[in-house]
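user: can you give me the structure for this one chain? tokens are fine.
assistant: on it. calling the predictor now.
[tool input]
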Amino acid sequence: MLENFGFENFIGVIGGLAVFMLGLDMMSSNLSKAAGNTFKLILEKATDNRAIGVLVGTLVTAVIQSSSATTTILISLVQSQLISFERSIAVILGANIGTTVTGQIMAFDVTKYSLILVALGYLLMILSKRTRTKNIAYIIIGLGFIFQGLEIMSNSMSVLRDSPYFLGLMSSFEDVGLGILAGTIFTALIQSSSASIGIAIGLASEGLITIEAAVPLILGANIGTCITAILAAINTGSAAKRVAVAHLFFNVTGVLLFAFWVPDFINFIKVITLDTGNIPRLMANAQTAFNVIMTLIWFPFIGLLEKISCFIIKEDLNPPKAKYYFPRISSLSQSPELLFVQSNDAIKNYKNVVKDMLWLSRDFFIKKEKDKEARLLEIREYQIEFRIDILNFLSRIVKQKLDFKDVSKALNLVSLVNEIEHIAFKLESSLVALHHNVPAFDQRYTGLEEYFIKTVKCYSKACNAVMYDSYEDSQNILERLDELKTIEEELRNKSVDDLLDGGDYESEKLNLWVLEFIRSVNATSRRICNIVKLAKVV
């Protein structure tokens, strides 16, 4: 059947695909690193306007080179209640446009320059000292690997031009239904529409596939790429599941619509493409045109897409207790930066859980609201589970291929989570030590509540300094903690003086317990700030 296709050709196809995937991974991960945390902040803040949401989805996906990763981030943000499901739909439409950038890049006939790109990137890498410049160097190397992988695959498959069986197999995909099915299954298996399009472009460059067969495969790839989002939505709430459903429904309806006029669509693509004999370019333009047209069709009906998704996925009658969704590592592993975006979001939520505990403890300790104790212990149980989930997620991040800087960042976050736990544990211990008794602070302790409020604010800002690696902020917080230490000593001395003057021993003992707890929070905030200081030294 494949008489001329030997073992060496098979190894060439597999090796070429490996080089191609390596280049795609290298380019996308370093594009994400170069962009930093910016794209996630944009996703959170810039989706109020639908048109801007589409633009944001396009640009973010063009940077991270994966609509699946963008949709996974959206699922995480929606599950974590950082953005609403309604605001995410426009971004989903834009993500489908952004993912076509990869195909447009691969359609350029520059494979003969691939090794030059690798050499230039490597030269830039060894000469540069700045991290951002190195990221750019890796992007260039990754682009070179993409083209080199395409060339290796094309050369290895060139012998198939003389195989009637293989040519017959490729021509069978001109049957629209069969082509869509094949594209869907293959893309779902490898979970990358960019890779499936890249293989098709490699076939096209050797004349092994026609545009009539390629278009159905491209349509199928748009459905198959939804599998990652579907897997990511498992075990999430209804709002997050609706993101995956909206993504799938958008692509399926588009494929069903285009399936009935594939020949006319191909003629349209040939009209807008200057070089009609360039099959890779026709394929890239077909993928882009499909997603742009479907976005234009659905844009006025975003509200309808929202209603359909809500109809398919009903509201949770018993919503899950978890307040944060941890995505599958595999769906974001192409970029450590994305993983740290997710972990920072989780730790931000975790920090706020303990912050809520501190505010409740103020009501119990200072305002003498006894009913807050039960609520505190209830949150404590959830906080313990939350901490375990975060540490498990961070441990999975560390197992990825990280450089020294990223490993240090992950370990710093582990230290932060453990320090936050120390505050929660100390609070629980204080409640147990008080034996349900409420401290008897009176008017003599003026400034106590203000001192407590400043303590909580320093704790929150210290955590932010670690998450966003701000050495300057950590130093400012350390100065404020020095000021709070003076206030704490004054309050403690006042309590001791009251004891010496014949004050009630049990009451003053309770008061000292609370002052000791507040002091321990400030001591923990100081250690948290020192995490940033130590990281700067290293």
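assistant: here you go. Confidence is low (pLDDT under 50) at residues 330-334. DSSP finds 24 helices and no strands in the chain.
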